[in-house]
Design brief:
alpha+beta, 6 strands, 6-stranded antiparallel β-sheet, single chain
Length: about 170
C-alpha cells in the first residue's frame, strides 16, 4: 500500500460531510478510502486473505474506525493484515517463593502467515528469554487468527481480530 497520509481534524470533518456521512460514521471500507485515503484492499497481506477473511476484516475495520474518536482516526495508519498462526513456547519452572506449584513461563512467540493454498510464511518472532536454548522449549499453545498491524500515530501496534465487533 502506498504510504497513507494523515489528515487534519478539520479536513476530516469536511471529507465526512462531502461523502454524505454527516453523522461521522463510516459504513463501508470504501468510506475509509474516500474520507481517510486508506485503501484497505491495498494493505500488505490483504490479497492473501480468503473471501471470508476479507469480509471479517472489512467489517472489523469499519467498526474500529467508528469506535474511536476523530483525532485518533486522523492519526491512524493501517500497515498490514494477515491470517496467522501464533505458536507460544514455554519452559517448566519449579515452585519458588512466588509460586506454590511448578508453573510454565512463556519464553518465545512465533507468528507464521497462513496462506490460502496451505503454505506458511515466517512473519514475526518474539523471544523473551534468549538465554534459554530452544531445546528446552515446550510448545504450549497454537492459535490461528486475523492479525492487523497499524500505527496509531504514536507507535506500531496490532490487534487480534476475533469478530467484526471483537478484537484485542
Amino acid at each position: 500500500m502506498a504510504a497513507a497520509k494523515k489528515i487534519g481534524y478539520a479536513e476530516a470533518l469536511q471529507r465526512y460531510d462531502a461523502a454524505g456521512l454527516s453523522d461521522y460514521r463510516l459504513k463501508t471500507a470504501f468510506d475509509i478510502l474516500t474520507v481517510h485515503g486508506h485503501d484497505i484492499a491495498q494493505l500488505k497481506g490483504y490479497k492473501d486473505l480468503t473471501a471470508e477473511q476479507r469480509d471479517l476484516f472489512n467489517a472489523f475495520i469499519v467498526n474500529y474506525y467508528n469506535g474511536v474518536g476523530m483525532r485518533i482516526r486522523c492519526g491512524f495508519v493501517p500497515k498490514s493484515v494477515h491470517y496467522v498462526e501464533m505458536i507460544t513456547y514455554c519452559v517448566s519452572r519449579p515452585a519458588d517463593e512466588w509460586h506454590e506449584q511448578p508453573y510454565k513461563e512463556t519464553v518465545a512467540v512465533f507468528f507464521n502467515i497462513l496462506l490460502p493454498d496451505g503454505k506458511k510464511k515466517k512473519f514475526k518472532e518474539h523471544i523473551i528469554y534468549p538465554e534459554i536454548p530452544p531445546e528446552y522449549w515446550l510448545e504450549h499453545a497454537k492459535e490461528e487468527f486475523l492479525r492487523y498491524d497499524f500505527n496509531d500515530g504514536k507507535r506500531m501496534d496490532w490487534f487480534h481480530v476475533i469478530e467484526p465487533g471483537r478484537w484485542y
